[in-house]
RNA sequence: GCUGAGGUGGCGGAGUGGACAAUCGCAACAGUCUGUAAAACUGUCGCCCUACCGGGCUACCCAGGUUCGAAUCCUGGCCUCAGCA
């Protein structure tokens, strides 16, 4: 019989010149060495990879989305398997997002604003990241609903919760903080995140406060709902499942600090910082960390939601973040953009460009990933040109490995006290 | 040789007297991407000038012709494909 490990975190080393720290998060499914990058497997899969490959790339924690798995395959199916771990065939730690981000991303279209919807500032809609969906033509019906519908917001928010219209079939689903807790217990992830109201960039202070207050009320509700479920499951001998509270407050210093303090006073197992990388500048994002992190309890692990690019990683680690998830490496990989450790500030190379067509070198000399150990740029370039599935796999493997290997270097550097030197080498 | 169909921008393929430098798809090229509505999306895509509005030139197999005006109609030529011999 397995020895049940509760959730825990301990700091093992601190950098003297920055707020960076090396630590370990203990979960029932294994230990996570931090700081750690967390690849995103929204629908229960890191696109194109097997769990074994994900692990071989150095991944310690797997990020899955509650909203997506709730829709498909549905919680009933996952329940039959006893949770995501068994369903997905991943026996390492899993962290689940609450669906809070979909409040932001599915809510981007302003036309659903018939209902009081103070989160959707119409002025911010023009800068939508989903600019591709602005045009009616070229939308593939099987992916994006019918055109007129897709323009409207798929989310309506009230104090009670958020009503989503499925991006698959338009059916309505109502998420509340309580339900998000219940769902995540069904998913069986090791770390849950409280349902929050993730706001778009460009919100006024007034609207940001309204939203933040709502996130706070939802945090409290999440916690009490979670306490009940946790107790029931403990009696049944189920493994502990941790809960992180989410800090919001947009780009406003007073709100961010208030949120950091408030969330810190609650009995969460860790703290997530959300509402960043939604369109603000890098400076604004870093400011948020500078305001928030010093107010967080040192003994709790901190997760940054949705960041980051290579340079962001150095910034967030130096500010004391322990884990962070981001779709960048996997998404970029699928469009042929692979990471390289280049002297130029951009750590990306578009392998679909002609320049790679006859390049016999691996993506990166010295890289120990499977793709670089076995294949040339020319071959992967070719795979992308002809849209072979292997292209996406190899690029994804490389990018995840690249970041995880960077994180390993960062951990070592923090222990050595050489983080700033390493940072200089990269930036 | 006869009969039928047809020759349009890198390719496929619309257009069948003016709103055509020519729909659309593919390819090509450039760009975007940070808790994934993403193996996606956006833009460019005859040549030249222009920061921009825009302007100039050459174009729908070739050569003539009809017409104010032709990718579109007429004549001749060349070529391709299918069926028959």
Description of the molecule:
The strands form five sheets. The chain has a six-stranded parallel β-sheet with strand order 4-14-13-12-11-10. A three-stranded antiparallel β-sheet has the order 1-2-3. The chain folds into two domains: 8-104 and 157-326, TIM Barrel (Alpha-Beta Barrel); 336-426, no CATH class. It is α/β, with parallel strands linked by helices. β2 (21-27) and β3 (30-34) form a beta hairpin. α15 (377-385) crosses α16 (389-416) and α16 runs antiparallel to α17. The termini are far apart. The chain has 17 helices and 16 strands. Helices cover 42% and strands 16% of the residues. It binds one RNA strand of 85 nucleotides through α4, β14, α13 and α16.
| Poorly predicted spans | 110-151
Number of helices: 17
CATH architecture grouping of the largest domain = Alpha-Beta Barrel
Total DSSP E strands: 16
Distance between the termini: 48 Å
Shape: globular
CATH homolog superfamily of the largest domain? Queuine tRNA-ribosyltransferase-like
- Reading side by side through the largest sheet, how are the strands ordered? 4-14-13-12-11-10
* Mean pLDDT figure: 89
**Count of folded domains:** 2
Structural class: alpha/beta
The biggest beta sheet reads:
6 strands, parallel
The helix fraction, in percent, is 40-55%
What fold name stands as the CATH topology of the largest domain?
Answer: TIM Barrel
